[in-house]
Amino acid sequence: MQQLTMTHRSSAQHRPRPRLLVVDDEALQQRALCEILVDQGYDVVGCTDPLVALDKLDQSTFELLLTDLQMPGMDGIELTRRAQAVAPDMVIVLMTAHGSIGSVIDAMKNGAIDYVQKPFRISGIVPVVERALEVQRLRVNNRRLETEVSQQVKELVAVNQELDAFAARLAHDLRGPLVNMRSILATTLKDSSTLLDPQQAELLRLGVQSGDLALRMVRDLLDFARLGNQPLTMVPLQLDEVLQAALITVEPLSEGRNIEWSIGALPARQGHAGLLQQAFSNLLGNAIKYTSARQRAHISVAAQLRPNGGHEIVFADNGAGFDPKYADQLFKPFRRLHTADEFVGEGMGLANVRRIVERHGGTVTARGRLGEGASFTIVFPPQPEA
User: Fold this and answer.
1) Is residue 38 predicted with pLDDT exceeding 70?
2) Architecture per CATH, 235-380
3) pLDDT attached to residue 165
4) Domain boundary assignment for the chain
5) How far apart are CA 328 and CA 315, in angstroms?
6) Nearest Cα to 73, choosing from 39, 35, 23?
7) pTM of the predicted protein model
8) Where does the pLDDT of residue 221 fall: very low under 50, low under 70, confident under 90, or very high at 90 and above?
9) What is the CATH code for 2-120?
10) What is the 3-state secondary structure (H, E, C) of 290-343?
11) Of 148, 189, 203, 295, which is the most exposed, with the fewest CB atoms less than 10 Å away?
12) Helix, coil or strand: residue 380
C-alpha cells in the first residue's frame, strides 16, 4: 500500500493535480473519501447535495466526478446525465452499495464509465480513479485533435477555394492576350505567306501551334477550377446513355482506326450528366490516343456491382500503358508520363476526371504497365435509398 501511494505521488509531481468532485449524501463517508483521495495526491472537492455539485460544475472544471448511486432528491443516474451535459470531457465513476446491475447499466448509458462497490478500500478505489483519469486524458486529447483536424480541413477548403478562384481568374485573364497573339501570328502567316522564306513561315506556324496549345491549357485550367466546390445538381441517370453521348463526342478521334470496342451495360445512378459525360469522354479519348500505335486496338468499358452496393466502371485498353510506380502522377494537373512527341496533350484530362468523380463521392484509380495497356477504375459509393 505504501509503495502504491509513493508511486502515485511521484507521477503526480510531473503533471497538474487532477481535480475530483465527490458527491455522497452521507457526510461522514464523503469526508472520509475526500481525505483518502487528497492523501493520494488529488485536488478534491466534496459535497452532499447533487444540486450543489451541479453548481460547482458550472463554476469550475473537474476531471472526474465520483458520485453515489442512491441519493434522495436526485439519484446518481440523473446526476450523471446532467453532469455529462455540463462537462462532456469529465469522466464519471459510480459508488453503489445497494444498486442493482440494471441501475449501474442505466448510469453507464448516460455517461458513467466505471463503478465501485461500497464499502471499498484504498486499494480498490485508487486503480478505478486512475483508469478513469486516463480515459479522461484520452478524451480531452481526442477532442483537441478533432478540433485541430476540423480547423485544418476548413483551412484547406478555404485555400482550395482561393486557388480555384485564382486559377479561374488567371485562365480568364490570359485567354484574351493569347487569342490576340495567336490571331496576329495566324493573320501574318496568311497575308505574308508569299513574302516569307520557308524558315520564317515555319516559325510563324510554330507560333500559331504554341498559341493553340496555350489556349487549350487555359481552357483546361478554367474547367478544372470550375469543378471546385460549387454545388452539383444530381438527377437520376442511365449511365448507358451518358456513355453513348461520350462515344459520339470522341468518334472523330477514331476515324480511320481499327478499334475493337467492348461496351458492357452500365448501372443507373444519381449524378450530373454533363460532368460524367466529360469524364467518360476524357477516358475514352485517352484510350483512343494511347492505342494509336496498335494495328488493332482493344478498348473496353465494363461495370459490376460491388459487395457494399456500390458500382465500379472499368475503362481498359491495350495501348502504350505506363510505369505503375508513377500511377498517382497521372491525376495531377499538367502531369504527363509520355512526351508531347509521343502523344499530344496537356495533362489535364485525368485531373478533371478525378475531380468529377470525387464530386460524385467516388474514387478513380489507374493500373498499367509500359507497352501492356492501361485500365482506369471508377468506384461509385452505394446510393442512398429513396
Assistant:
1) yes
2) 2-Layer Sandwich (3.30)
3) 64
4) 2-120, 150-226, 235-380
5) 17
6) 23
7) 0.48
8) low
9) 3.40.50.2300
10) HCCCCCCEEEEEEEEECCCCCEEEEEEECCCCCCHHHHHHHHCCCCCCCCCCCC
11) 295
12) strand
